[in-house]
Design brief:
By secondary structure, the protein is of the alpha+beta class. The protein has two domains: 9-237, P-loop containing nucleotide triphosphate hydrolases (Rossmann fold, 3-Layer(aba) Sandwich); 241-359, Nucleic acid-binding proteins (OB fold (Dihydrolipoamide Acetyltransferase, E2P)). Helices cover 23% and strands 36% of the residues. Strands 6-7-8-3-9-10 form a six-stranded mixed beta sheet, with helices on both faces. A hairpin with a 2-residue loop joins strand 4 and strand 5 (70-71). Helix 2 (97-107) packs across helix 3 (112-125) and helix 3 packs across helix 4. The longest helix has 18 residues, at 171-188. It is elongated, with a radius of gyration of 25 Å.
Length: 360
């Protein structure tokens, strides 16, 4: 069997079953050469099982995995030419940074001169050259993560798989490391499959995101496409905060649906394919899409309400707004000027295109 050299991946009808439980079902996915694609979803959705089948640690029940046109579905891990970065780093504690990075090259029986050259280059690339003689216990979490990444790329694999690599780091370090990983991936051009349950991480790093739920692929697209056009209620619910209002479609005109919530609030919403009058729907709206003002404006969906609670979150301030009739919306504003206080009367305005309709 030929060892794959290209970084393109094609997954065809891939499934994994454990007795009466299906972890992955009928997955079809193509990952382009040089692409950074994130597998995103809640715990138990099948993303890690998918990664482990790609790596060769788990045998698929059905389907095929093609890397560079080569079917690797039944190849052992060491013949797939794929780099791995684990959640727990998996560094050898008795080896220095240099020795950890060189380990795979030694196993591959590379000449000493080649090993020295490659390790030196990778340590410079990952900003670890000044730490070559240190042991893992002498490194910070971020430095250990860079060592794990350096070890993976030292063998020049066309593909790197990353399984929740930043989950053990604090938030500030995660933000810094995700930028480093993405910049490094752009420099070396390696196809990268990144498994995470962190929506912000996937949005910030990915060329495309594949969202999984209950073993199935439910949405595939660029970060902006998925966030701004979720298409499925699960995706809208999973990708960020939102308010949900139960409503009925009262009328449809052109591309707008007039909906009436259970409290009697009337909202014009972009129909997005919903045309049935009397259809029960749920209206989703994200907090950053809601405008809060001290006065009424002549725009669609302008209603009054009062501030119920205030959360100061640093860069933004989040409010709960109780509208006349009882509907409650979450709204966010940038932290500029004096925030509203509990009990303040405000006007809420939402553009029809900034809401999503989903059939009940």
């Amino acid at each position: 069997m030929t060892t794959p050299l290209s970084g393109s991946i094609r997954i065809e009808d891939l499934s994994k079953k454990y007795r009466d439980f299906t972890a992955v079902e009928g997955l079809n996915l193509e990952i382009r050469q040089g692409e950074f694609l994130s597998l995103l979803g809640p715990s138990g959705c099948g993303k890690t099982t998918t990664l482990r089948m790609l790596a060769g640690f788990v045998a698929p029940t059905e389907g095929h995995i093609l890397v560079g046109g080569v079917d690797v579905s039944r190849l052992p891990p060491h013949k797939r030419n794929i780099g791995l970065v684990f959640q727990n780093y998996a560094l050898w504690p008795h080896m220095t940074v240099y020795q950890n990075v060189a380990f795979g090259l030694k196993i591959a029986k590379q000449p000493r001169s080649v090993i020295d050259q490659k390790v030196a280059a990778v340590l410079v690339l990952t900003n670890l050259d000044h730490l070559a003689d240190r042991y893992p216990r002498e490194l910070s979490g971020g430095q250990q993560q860079r060592v794990a990444l350096a070890r993976a790329i030292a063998l020049d694999p066309p593909i790197i798989l990353m399984d929740e690599p930043l989950s053990n780091l604090d938030r500030k370090l995660r933000v810094a490391m995700r930028k480093e990983i993405k910049e490094l991936q752009r420099k070396i051009g390696t196809t990268t499959l990144y498994v995470t349950h962190d929506q912000e991480e996937a949005l910030a790093m990915s060329d495309r995101i594949a969202i999984m739920n209950k073993g199935k692929l439910v949405r595939l697209g660029s970060p902006s496409d998925i966030y701004n056009d979720p298409r499925h209620e699960f995706v809208a619910d999973f990708m960020g905060d939102h308010s949900v209002l139960e409503a009925i479609v009262s009328s449809v005109r052109d591309d707008l649906a007039l909906t009436t919530t259970t409290s009697g609030l009337r909202l014009e919403v972009l129909a997005r394919g919903i045309t049935s009058i009397g259809q029960r729907v749920r209206v989703h709206v994200r907090p950053e899409r809601i405008k809060l003002m001290d006065y009424k404006v002549d725009e669609p969906n302008s209603v009054t309400g009062s501030i119920g609670f205030v959360e100061f979150l640093g860069a933004v301030v989040r409010y709960s707004v109780e509208l006349e009739g009882g509907d409650i919306l979450l709204a966010e504003t940038q932290n500029v000027g004096a925030p509203y206080a509990i009990g303040d009367r405000v006007w809420v305005t939402i553009a029809p295109s900034d809401m999503f309709l989903f059939r009940v």
